[in-house]
Amino acid sequence: MFPNGFLWGAAVAANQCEGAWNIGGKKESICDHLTAGSLHKNRRFTSEILADEKYPSHEAVDFYHHYQQDIALLAEMGCKVFRLSIAWSRIFPNGDDETPSEEGLRFYDNVFDECRRYHMEPLVTLSHFEIPHNLVKRYGGFANREVITFFERYAKTVLERYKDKVKYWLTFNEINFGTMPMGNLEVLGIINQEEEEIANPLDDMQLRFQALHHVFLASARAVKAAHEINPDFKVGCMIAHITMYPLTCRPEDLLLQQELDQIINNFCADVQVRGAYPYFAFNYFQKHDLQILFEREDQQILKEGCVDFYSFSYYMSNCVTTEEGHETTMGNLLGGVKNPYLKASEWGWQVDPKGIRYTLNKIYDRYGIPMFVVENGLGAVDEIDGSGEIQDDYRIAYLKEHILEMGRALEDQVDLMGYTVWSAMDLVSSGTGEMKKRYGLIHVDKDDTGNGTLKRTRKKSFYWYRKVIETNGEDLE
Ligand code: BG6
After folding, report:
1. What is the mean pLDDT of the segment spanning 428-457?
2. Phi and psi, residue 66, nearest 5°
3. Using one digit for the tens of pLDDT, what is the confidence trace for 345-386?
4. Catalytic site positions
């Protein structure tokens, strides 16, 4: 079912695991200004670091000092690939510095060397919600065209430095988040108020779509540079695929589903894979009275920066309808209407394994290029039992069903390169800032109050996944 050389692995992001937020020359990224929250309490951005607030990224699970142990555990699991991100502000602490921080560069040298020692391919995201805070404060984030140059400088620096250590790259994590108000802060680096809730920001749509245009250009420039620096590099886009179904077979519901799917899922990928804006984007801009400023060279830049593969996160699906009054549910970045045929996780994300087969076919049908599932997993409360073990059978069941459906998609003849479970070890939840919402195959002893020894413990899913990898997806029991 799974081809030889299939890239099995696990994933993390710097801001959710590294900690060491002000160590080793690093300065603040935007995430270091996000407070802790919960399912019922939104995370807030504060323009200053407040003494009486908790900022979960500051220590996170201290991967910075535990990377050797963590990578050894991933190797023990048999991972062929480890997806992680580089914290931009560890390399260019202010974002606009002329020269990079050698100490920051050395940290990732060590991390990648450690991966190589175990023959594990790093899959590196250049920007996973980690814009240096100074670029947000001083320049207004990607709303300012100048920030493209700073990103390009950062991208070229790391692509050059790690050209013999890293082969697989992603430019912007969940770039399509920028099509929604929630993406202002984390993808685009736009803050319209001194203090705001990330789920509920003051949104200037015109500014947001202009900033997104700049992010497309930044991504395209990085892709072009990557291909020049090492023609063997494979660079992907990264889309949060929000799979949506019409709630009913009323044509109105289908049309709404199509419209949302176009702008939320297809718009960014069309630009990054095909190198041009799709027709429906212009229609959307007109409808919302948006004027996106294109400079003369922009079309050419986009054309020259097409990605080699399509990567995406897939956690859940939801329904849409034009009818009012239906029960709603939560989801990754975006909630929706409840699907009566699906069950949801404790955080209200609807579990839909068949949806991953549908989604893989849908994407392959549209783009026909290799795909990579770079995030899929279950956020749940894990308890340590009397014998010190974590019996996370619910996570195993979730992963098993999704892997089975990926296998079916492979039988449908889609081209899938690999799969990285979210997440390798427990880490800070991006949406809620909690530790309690655990995704890891490896448990980390740390709670929401910040207490814990940071000790790593293999969960039951760790042993299960090891067998999955060992048998190349044949044994899922
Ligand atoms: C994706 C992000 O949105 O989903 C990750 O790329 C994130 O950073 C993951 O952690 C799960 O979301 P959450 O909010 O449960 O952490």
Report:
1. 97
2. -120, 10
3. 989 899 999 999 999 999 999 999 999 999 999 999 999 999
4. 174, 375
Atom of ligand 1 nearest to the CA of 432: 14
Q: How many domains does the chain have?
A: 1
For ligand 1, what atom is nearest to the CA of residue 238?
A: 6
pLDDT of residue 193: 86
Coil, helix or strand at residue 124: strand
Which residue's CA is minimally distant from atom 2 of ligand 1?
A: 430
- Centre of ligand 1 from the C-alpha of residue 312, in Å: 12
Q: Which domain holds residue 416?
A: 7-470
Q: How far apart are CA 263 and CA 426, in angstroms?
A: 32
Q: What pLDDT, on the 0 to 100 scale, is given for residue 63?
A: 98
Q: For the packed helices 460-470 and 63-77, what is the interaxial angle rounded to 10 degrees?
A: 50
Q: Is 240 in the pocket of ligand 1 (CB under 6 A)?
A: yes
pLDDT, one tens digit per residue, over 288-312 is 999 999 999 999 999 999 999 999 9
Q: How many residues does the chain have?
A: 477
* Domain presence at residue 476: no
In a domain, 475, yes or no: no
| Ligand 1: centre distance to CA 39 (Å) | 13
- End-to-end alpha carbon distance in the chain: 16
Q: What is the pLDDT of residues 95-145, one digit of tens each?
A: 999 999 999 999 999 999 999 999 999 999 999 999 999 999 999 999 999
1 in a domain, yes or no? no
Residue 124, class by beta-carbon neighbours within 10 Å (0-12 exposed, 13-18 middle, 19+ buried)? buried
Residue nearest to atom 5 of ligand 1 (CA): 430
Position in ligand 1 atom list of the atom nearest CA 240: 3
Place of tokens 């250009």: 217
434 in a domain, yes or no?
Answer: yes
Residue type, 163: K
What is the pLDDT of the chain when averaged over all its residues?
96
| Secondary structure letter of residue 76 according to DSSP | H
How many angstroms does the Cα of residue 431 sit away from the middle of ligand 1? 6
CB of residue 57 inside a 6 A radius of ligand 1: no
What's the CATH number where 449 sits?
Answer: 3.20.20.80
State the burial class of residue 284 (Cβ atoms within 10 Å of its Cβ: 0-12, 13-18, 19+).
Answer: middle
Beta carbon of 423 within 6 Å of any ligand 1 atom: no
With beta carbons less than 8 A apart as the criterion, state whether 53 and 41 touch: no
Question: DSSP secondary-structure letter at 352?
Answer: -
Is the Cβ atom of 429 under 6 angstroms away from ligand 1?
yes
pLDDT of 186 higher than 90:
yes
Q: How far is the CA of 428 from the centre of ligand 1 (A)?
A: 9
